[in-house]
Write a structure and sequence with these properties.
Blueprint: H1 2-33, H2 36-89, H3 92-111, H4 116-127, H5 138-149, E1 158-160, H6 167-171, H7 183-190, E2 216-218, H8 224-227, H9 230-249, H10 258-280
Antiparallel strand pairs: 1-2
Length: 281
């Protein structure tokens, strides 16, 4: 079986190889059969096509060179426009610095950080720059201006304790919080350290009932962050406790029924009359 398979494969190989040889011989015969005139004509046609393609290639290379030149010219114009733009705005560093300052001031005004006067000074400095008219900054500049106008500076950044002061007295001042229930906010802000104090005067407030003249207390702004702090919650709970205590203390007095008093008076008079009658008898 193996021998027959090998023989079949050998015959098939001979047939395939033989057909290729015959086809190659036929092609050679056909090529050999071309006359000199036909060969010359074929060469002439091919030369003409080569010349035509060479001309087209030269034209394309010329167009490519022209387009590259135009592209370089446009790049130069764009570069010049960018340089002129940054020259007008004062340079990239000035642009980035102004953007950072504007973002920082916007955050300060939204969170009511620090005091209003410092924010106004910073806004006045930024207003001197022509960059405020830049399309990238016009909207934010306007919003900052509106936020600054709506900022109500109800507290001072610091307060110096005077004789007779208490934390609730300071908190009740109009220039501070105008509410004596806000004293826990002052205590928490200065419990671990006041801004300044005279010599031999404590610089911490461990007991809220003990503050000393000359101590400089920090007065936090009532920002959104402070409204969520533990100190504000403590002040709020103290206020709620005072309200409930005040209600309990001022409970309305229930009046006695007038009918009951009249009956008691009648009984007393009856007893008195009975006693008098007994004495007479």
């Amino acid at each position: 079986m193996k021998f027959t398979r090998l023989l079949v494969m050998l015959l098939a190989f001979i047939l395939v190889f033989g057909t290729k040889i015959t086809f190659a011989q036929d092609d050679e015969k056909q090529q050999e059969e071309m006359t000199d005139e036909q060969w010359q004509q074929a060469m002439t046609d091919l030369t003409a096509k080569k010349t035509e393609l060479t001309t087209k290639l030269a034209d394309l290379q010329k167009d490519k060179a022209d387009l590259i030149a135009k592209l370089d010219a446009k790049k130069g114009e764009v570069k010049k426009a960018e340089d002129d733009y940054w020259t007008e705005v004062g340079g990239k560093d000035a642009y980035n610095n102004y953007k950072n300052d504007l973002d920082k001031l916007d955050r300060i005004i939204k969170n009511r950080e620090g005091n209003k006067s410092d924010a106004e000074k910073k806004f006045a400095e930024l207003s001197k720059s022509n960059l405020r008219c830049h399309p990238d900054f016009v909207t934010k500049y306007r919003l900052i201006k509106e936020g600054l106008a709506n900022w109500k500076d109800i507290s001072v950044p610091q307060y110096t304790v005077m004789k007779g002061d208490y934390l609730f007295v300071i908190a009740a001042r109009k220039e501070v919080y105008n509410n004596h229930h806000m004293w826990p906010i002052l205590w928490e802000a200065n419990e671990n350290g006041v801004l300044d104090a005279p010599r031999r005067i404590p610089r911490t407030i461990k007991n809220p009932n003990l503050i000393y003249p000359g101590q400089v207390l920090r007065v936090p702004q009532l920002t959104d962050v402070l409204m969520k702090s533990a100190a504000f919650e403590r002040a709020k709970s103290w206020l709620d406790w005072r309200k409930t205590n005040r209600v309990r203390h001022h409970k309305p007095v229930i009046k006695k029924d007038e009918g009951k008093t009249e009956k008691k008076d009648e009984k007393k008079t009856e007893k008195k009359t009975e006693k008098k009658d007994d004495k007479k008898k």
